Amino acid sequence: MRTKSLKKNKINVVTLGCSKNVYDSEVLMGQLKASGKEVAHEEEGNIVVINTCGFINNAKEESINTILDFMQKKEDGEVDKVFVTGCLSERYKPDLQKEIPNVDQYFGTTELPGLLKALGADYKHELIGERLTTTPKNYAYLKIAEGCDRPCSFCAIPIMRGKHKSTPIETLVVEAIKLAAKGVKELILIAQDLTYYGLDLYKKRNLAELLENLVKVDGIEWIRLHYAFPTGFPMDVLEVMKREPKICNYLDIPLQHISDDILKSMRRGTTKEKTTKLLKAFREAVPEMTIRTTLIVGYPGETEENFQELKQWVANMRFERLGCFTYSHEENTHAYNLEDNVPEDIKQDRANQIMEIQSQISWELNQAKIGQTLKVVIDRKEGNYFVGRTEFDSPDVDNEVLIDASKTYLKTGEFTTVTITDAADFDLYGEVAVIN
Questions:
Q1: What is the DSSP string of 44-96?
Q2: CA angle centred on 317, ends 254 and 357, rounded to 5°
């Protein structure tokens, strides 16, 4: 007599792409756990949910390859069901259903209740702010808004994420309190555009007021700002940053380019003169601020002259942190109507040239830190080192501080004071400071 299998389902959530996706996966996992489901992040599980990215070609390829890998596992009997959600699924659902039909179901970025139902769980409104965090215990992302109203020509995010929608201050404060209760000490504020925060809810740019409320949360020691937009930046944020020690002297502000011709074609709503003036105002208001930016090279019509202007500007501005990407020609964006006329090898060469300049700047700025004593949070132990960060560094993208583990024992997630003894292009080396 056959007996019905009592195998317990375990749901494995796989996250691809940016920190916004990490946050969405954490919310999904929190909802699943509240419905009594066994859930894990990027571990073994017989039911798989892939949270995809559809931002640029490389990310799309990674998402598709991950789906295909799990479809093979399903065919081999290693997993029972595969569900796909996130940006790629939002943007290309009909194509995906046609090309990879044996995925159990596809869901877009706003279809969490439907995804939960497919997984045998209920969407619980009362769980707003509850998530299963997947980051190291000392930091967490706090998504303060969804979507974007900016018209940038190269960007497909509004197609995938919709219009800008701010989360109310009181909801974010409750979420911050819950995170602090779990031991989170650093909040990394994320959105497609932080500077737009509040315009829809409060009829004004309200990031400063949000920060004023978040600094009151006990247990939170650092608050970091990611993804600000240069046009219409609310300058009162700088006053709060200067006044409140909990707000890191750090700002991530993707600028993309500096040539007026390219900025105009990119529909960035700014100019070289305005951008340079804004950065000067940042430096004057908060002299100790670290500015992180990202740039795009190889945009349609970028001439050698445009690129040389960008190169010279990067050398002059001496950004503390900088990343450079090659342009990706994305369907349904405004720039897709332009000819993608910069060859791939030239795009890559230009990106390499920018990063060479930045590497030298970073090395020089790091050399100046030798002998300084800095507050450092310990993220992890790796090999013979404890690896930490200063307030001037965000996880995964910025510099790290390495401390010899054979000389001292440090607890991950804790803050310590470190004297910098040596420096490389993108790493600092230090010893725990002796405080007299």
A1: --SEEEEEE--SSHHHHHHHHHHHHHHHHHHHTTS-SEEEEEEHHHHHHHHHH
A2: 90
Segment among 10-24, 259-273, 363-377 with least mean pLDDT: 10-24
Q: What is the tens place of the pLDDT at every residue in 389-420? A: 999 999 988 999 999 999 999 999 999 999 99
Cα–Cα distances (Å) from 182 to 179, 394, 398, in that order, read 5, 20, 25
φ, ψ of residue 84 to 5 degrees: the values are -120, 130
The dihedral formed by the CA atoms of 207, 210, 216 and 220, expressed in degrees to the nearest 10: -70
For 162-246, where are the alpha helices, taking DSSP H only? Answer: 169-181, 199-202, 207-214, 236-243
Contacts of 260 (CB under 8 A, 6+ apart): 271, 272
Residue type at position 398:
D
pTM, rounded to two decimals = 0.88
User: N- to C-terminal Cα distance for the chain?
Assistant: 77
Of 172, 47, 159, whose CA–CA distance to 108 is shortest? 159
User: Are 96 and 84 contacting, i.e. CB atoms less than 8 angstroms apart?
Assistant: yes
| Beta strands, E only, 258-314 | 290-297
Q: How far apart are CA 293 and CA 65, in angstroms?
A: 29
Give the HSE-up count for residue 123: Cα atoms under 13 Å, Cβ half-sphere: 12
205 closest CA partner among 213, 197, 215? 197
List the strands of the sheet with 105-106, edge to edge: 38-41, 10-15, 47-52, 81-86, 105-106
**Which amino acid does the sequence have at 356?**
E
